[in-house]
Design goal:
CATH superfamily: NAD(P)-binding Rossmann-like Domain
CATH architecture: 3-Layer(aba) Sandwich
Structural class: alpha/beta
Largest sheet: 7 strands, parallel
CATH topology: Rossmann fold
Distance between the termini: 64 Å
Strand content: 5-15%
Strand order of the largest sheet: 3-2-1-4-5-6-7
Order of helices and strands: EHEHEHEHEHEHHHEH
Radius of gyration: 19 Å
Amino acid sequence: MMADTPFDVSGRVILVTGSSRGVGRGIAEHLARHGATVIVHARRAEALEEVTATLETTGAPWLAVTADVRDEESVMQAVTAIDERFGRLDGVIANVGGAAMGPAASLEAERFRKQLDLNLTGAFITLKATYPLLRASTGAAIVISATAATSPTPQFSAYGAAKAATEHLARSLAAEWGPQVRVNCVSPGLIRTEGSLKSVFGGNEDLVARAGATTAVGRIGDPEDIAAACHYLLSDAAAFVSGAVLVVDGGPTEGPTQRILRALEDPR
């Protein structure tokens, strides 16, 4: 049954992993404001206190679950709790991820594996565990990738490789699980969160503005930008979209040719 408008997600039950803060929290709060029943997730229950307090003010039903997305049994227990509470699941956003920068030549293999495990294996376990419920509801899954998946980024080789693999995973699952389950990726650029403001910009708003000037729209992103993209992909408006990667990065202001020309003009 189609919603009143193709973008309507009200009444849908949606899990957002890694939603205690940052982009995940922004997605969860956005969906709740638009009438979805949201399941928020973190590894520790106390990490979810702030986001659940906000969800309470929306009046929409919600549930908090805890799990380590790298542990299949832990994730299955969370999915069981969702099924017992709501009896269905219409969407999942595999948002958990993280980067640990370091030069590739000195990057320990174990540190490389941990980034693959967190970003790639965690997404696979999440989607595999939720698949039966998504199939039953003809639902949709989204994996949060990153522009590092397609843009060579020194110091982030492990992270970029992991995110590139998650995009391939999403395309493969879209082909395998369709037509019952649609699977897509959202690929954010630089997003303003508590973490990025501290780690990338050192709390300096001037640096934030300078970074924003490198995008075609003239600013860095907000969690709401990613939430809106996820909203679209979860809705009936995206009923003919599967196996896609939606890049949400503000757009580039130059390409390879422009970079080469700029280098040639460098007086050095």
